[in-house]
Amino acid sequence: MAGRTLAQRAMRNPVLPLIYERVWRPVGFTLASAGRSTTAEQERIDAFLALAPGARVLDVACGPGNTTRRLLRTLGPDGRITGLDAAPAMIARARADTDDPRVDYIQGDATAMPFADGAFNAVTCLGALYLVEDAEAVLDELVRVVAPGGRVVVLTSVHRGPAPLHGLADALMRPAGMRVFGADEVTAALRDRGLVHVRRELAGFLQLAAGSRPM
């Protein structure tokens, strides 16, 4: 995912990792979710993932590792998490801020991830899919690397309100390289890729969508 759009360039700015966890993400996501706190958001993510102790987890577009680290408490001593991000500054910050042998960070492209098919018991992409030019390719990869019985969980944008406003939202977001997904666009994409037990929860202009790969 080359940093070509305004939003992608912002994610690669070396200053952003310094304020991301305490300012950028909490403020931005609280506004977008109509008041949901970071703690409440993580509780819903945990419920959607339903991780078993010892699970192998991949956090795609992990940023400075804030979401990656919050998943650790559910894994037990034998669990492993890999965080992947395209931005060197984000990966450097994540490594500097994480002191846990259960975590690895890798710089890489979410549209062509360096992992084997079915390598993880769960895969997350939390707050990044709307920044990607080829979101469909990222979804392909999320599903490819999750093991049978594993879950894919995505937190991303969604259109809300009257249909005439959707075009306005698109017009405002598109110049910055940000995408607002249709009401059923992400859940349909998960089903199209073979996932089952697909579910979704809405909060403001955000959606938490998940599905399981059949056994």
Q: What can be said about this structure in brief?
A:
The mean pLDDT is 84. This protein has a single domain, classed as Rossmann fold.
Pick out its properties.
215 residues; Rossmann fold; alpha/beta; single chain
What does this structure look like?
This protein has 215 residues and is an alpha/beta fold. The protein has one domain (6-212): 3-Layer(aba) Sandwich (Rossmann fold), CATH 3.40.50.150. It is 37% helix and 23% strand. It is built from eight helices and seven strands. The protein has helices spanning 6-12, 16-32, 38-49, 66-70, 88-97, 135-144, 164-173, 185-192; strands at 56-60, 80-85, 103-107, 120-126, 146-157, 196-203, 206-212. A seven-stranded mixed sheet has the order 3-2-1-4-5-7-6, with helices on both faces. The longest helix is centred in the first third of the chain and has 17 residues, at 16-32. The model has no long low-confidence stretch (mean pLDDT 84).
